[in-house]
Input
Amino acid sequence: MHPRTHVRTFVADTVDGIRGEAIKYAQYMNKNYSGGTTTFKKVMNANDAKAHVDSVISYEKDHWQDDSQEFIDNINNLYKKCYEEE
Output
């Protein structure tokens, strides 16, 4: 009744490996979770991920809480770890 999109991070050595882990996760969730269907959409490239991070940070800044700076730092660090570091 209330579909939503959620971004999740997976670890693997290659993009195909990441895709495979995400698909396995979606299959697992569909077999074991009764809250609805989980669908794998795609592996984000750096531009997709940056747009998502910017959107989430913008929302957080508009709805500031005590832990907002920590959240913003964490999401920026995760982006750098996934897309900028070798």
